[in-house]
Amino acid sequence: MKELVIFDLDGTLINSIKDLGAATNFALQKNGYPVHPLEAYPMYVGNGVNKLIERALPEDFRNKENVELLKKDFKEYYDSHNTDYTVAYEGMPELLKELQDKGIKLAVASNKYQAATTKLVKHYYPEIDFVDICGQKEDIPIKPDPSIVFGILATAGIKKQDVLYVGDSGVDMETARRACVDSVGVTWGFRSAKELRDFNAGTIVDTPSQILQLITL
C-alpha cells in the first residue's frame, strides 16, 4: 500500500478552468488584446501562469515584457475571483477523506503560484491535513521538473517507491517519470486520455474510487 499520494491541483482536485479563463481574458482585454472562448483554455493551462499568458497572447506579442504586464492584471483579477466558478471534482473530497482516515499522507504539487494554490486547497479541502501544499515558487523550477516532488518527499519523509502521483496532463505524467514515482492519470481533467497515454501514465482512471483501489492493493 502506498504511504503518500501527491495530487496535482487544477484539473485533478478542482475544476478551475472558467476562473482561469476569465482572469486571462480580463488581462487580455484590459491591454487591448483579443480574448478567447473559455472552451479554449484547457489547452493553455498546465505549465504555470507565465506560459498560460504567453499562449493566450497573439503570437507576435509573446515576449517577456507583455507576459509580466498581463500577469500583474491576471493576478489582480484572479486573486479576487478564483472561487467564482471553481468546484471540487465529484468524489474527490470523499476520496481524500478516506485516504486520510486510512493514515495515508496527502500532498499537492501545482504549477499555480503558491498563494493561490494554498488558498484554493484550503478553501475546497478544509478537512484535509496535507503534509505539504506546493505551488509555483520563484526559486523552484516548475513541473515537469521533479524538484517539487523531491521537496514533498523530504518533508513527508517518504521513499519514492511508496509514493503515487496523480494528475490530469502530460506535464504531470512526465513529472512523475522524472521523479521515478508511480503515476496515475485522470480523465476528468483538462487533457485527454491520449495525452496521458502518450506521456506513459502508469495507470489511467475515470473515477476517484479507482484511485482508492490502486492505493490499497
Walkthrough of the structure:
The protein has 217 residues and is an alpha/beta fold. It folds into 2 domains: 4-15 and 87-215, HAD superfamily/HAD-like (Rossmann fold, 3-Layer(aba) Sandwich), CATH 3.40.50.1000; 17-81, DNA polymerase, domain 1 (Orthogonal Bundle), CATH 1.10.150. It is 44% helix and 16% strand. It has helices at 17-30, 49-56, 64-81, 92-101, 114-124, 147-156, 170-179, 193-198, 208-215; strands at 4-7, 14-15, 87-88, 105-113, 132-136, 163-167, 182-186, 203-205. The strands form 2 sheets. It has a 6-stranded parallel sheet, with helices on both faces. A two-stranded antiparallel sheet has the order 2-3. The model has no long low-confidence stretch (mean pLDDT 96).
Biggest sheet strand line-up: 5-4-1-6-7-8
Q: Looking at this structure, what is the CATH superfamily of the largest domain?
A: HAD superfamily/HAD-like
Return the average pLDDT rounded to an integer: 96
> Biggest sheet, open or closed, and with what strands and sense?
6 strands, parallel
Strand content: 15-25%
Backbone structural class = alpha/beta
CATH-assigned fold name of the largest domain: Rossmann fold
> What's the CATH C level of the largest domain?
Alpha Beta
> What's the gyration radius in Å?
17 Å
Shape: globular
Poorly predicted residue ranges:
none
> Number of helical runs?
9
CATH architectural label of the largest domain: 3-Layer(aba) Sandwich
Summarize the model shown.
It contains nine helices and eight strands. The protein is an alpha/beta fold and 217 residues long. The protein has two domains: 4-15 and 87-215, Rossmann fold; 17-81, Orthogonal Bundle (DNA polymerase, domain 1), CATH 1.10.150.
